[in-house]
Amino acid sequence: MNVVIPPLVFYAVGIVLILGGVARAIMLGRRSPSREIADDDPAKARARRRHLAFGLVWVAMGLFLVASTAGILRSRAESGNLSPSRSAGTSAPVIRLDPARPTTLVPPPNP
User: Fold this and answer.
1) Residue 27 belongs to some domain of the structure
2) In terms of residue numbers, what domain contains 45?
3) What's the CA gap between 27 and 76, in Å, rounded?
4) pLDDT per position as a tens digit, 50-69
5) Using CA atoms in the order 95, 97, 99, 102, what is the torsion angle rounded to 10 degrees?
6) How many separate domains does the chain show?
């Protein structure tokens, strides 16, 4: 049994990741202008850097999810109809439209 998840779910999760990452990076990852530099301790600075870094990671994951769902990023397995083996005399790869039926146009064997 195959379970088909609609692409709308992946778009929604991607957008939530993007918005959450931007909010985390902006609200928690930057310095508040009301504070002065003197009251900043290294622990708070590390926490802000961590929030900024993980906010950007969330944004990157969301962008990747949206782009891969939209088909912008294609895996090599999906476009694997190109034959990896070439004969010595050909310059272009052999394209097989249906992997179950091999092509009948085969270069002649070398004597």
Assistant:
1) yes
2) 7-31+41-70
3) 39
4) 999 999 999 999 999 999 99
5) -70
6) 1
